Amino acid sequence: MTVVVAVVGVGVTLMLSITERARETGLLRAVGLTRRGVRAMVAWEAALAGSAAALLGAVIGAGYGLLGVRALGVGFDSWSIPVPTLAGLAAGIVAVAVLAAVVPALRAGRVPPIRALQNA
To answer: What GO terms are given for molecular function (predicted)?
Structure first.
């Protein structure tokens, strides 16, 4: 259920971003960017946002974890973050972001350049 909510949330955000930048997308299409190029641009934007979210989430999560351990007074000798688990979670976050970008990317690629420039 959490993944579905994440996909919908990211998808709506990307759709809003693409709608607000319709003129920019239309201009790029008018100067020769293909539909595939527009879709790739949206997918890369989603992947970059997902990567930033994963990095920020890992740092904030580790910080809160450390604060929680100290607040509870639980002693430990070493601090360890399981890198393979963290890498898998980061890859999952990026995959969800790219999956959420599919519909907005398809819609952005379908808009004719002249229509995007007229309506913006």
So the answer is: transmembrane transporter activity
